[in-house]
Amino acid sequence: MPYRGHIAREQRKKNPLISKAAGYAADTAHFFIEDADHPYVQEKPFDWIRGYQVGGKSLTWGRACQRWSDFEFSAPQRYGYAVDWPIRYDDVAPWYSHVERFIGVCGIKEGIESMPDGEFLPGYELNCVEQHIKDVLWKKFKRHYVSGRWAHITQPQEIHTQQGRGQCQNRNLCMRGRPYGGYFSSVTSTLPWAQKTGNLTVAPIRWCILLSTTKKKVALRAYA
Ligand SMILES: Cc1cc2nc3c(=O)[nH]c(=O)nc-3n(C[C@H](O)[C@H](O)[C@H](O)COP(=O)(O)OP(=O)(O)OC[C@H]3O[C@@H](n4cnc5c(N)ncnc54)[C@H](O)[C@@H]3O)c2cc1C
Prior knowledge:
The protein is α+β, with helices and mostly antiparallel strands and 224 residues long. The protein has seven helices and four strands.
């Protein structure tokens, strides 16, 4: 990587949309599409971030795992916009737990109603500067400052070793792959788990539907 992982100006110029994605860098660009291959019409600004590989965007995601609270589920009703959710936090809470246990989410329980706690593996403690910010924010503004909740295995449980995954090594190289399976991606976790059933078929074929708005014509192209 001639620019120590940074993207060359030329490549950024050729990919003004996709290069906006967090984590888009010289060592990860192959997990993202090229703008020229996948054009789309933007009537309003809309950044469509895509990666067409087995594992999808679970290879490029930031791994932040925050539960919604009842504040989110009831927001349309409270503020009178869009359509009310047919479910509330209590309906999905057990499923959040189910997923968190399986994929492994670390975090610190804070007891804050607007960001419910989950089934956390040990979380990343704040360093002394962060702790200071936390204290000051609370003292002056009554605002919370918390450690993020991440799909990183900080203490592998039986369910994780069964998936063939190990402890996160804190190497800060997640975007290059995951030889230890320390963070959740479908390649390390759910796909091998599905494969074990013998019922999984992976079809890594890319279909691109191109809708021409001027000619009102739909063209279907297939890439193998
Ligand atoms: C940079 C980045 C950071 C993110 N950070 C976070 C985060 O911190 N927390 C969070 O919760 N979410 C985050 N997300 C969002 C999250 O990654 C996605 O919402 C999630 O991965 C979407 O999963 P999916 O299975 O719906 O779609 P995808 O992961 O896009 O999977 C779709 C798959 O289908 C394949 N496919 C498409 N068409 C066909 C076809 N015709 N035949 C066969 N296969 C096909 C694609 O190749 C792809 O593998 C982030 C996303 C990005 C890009």
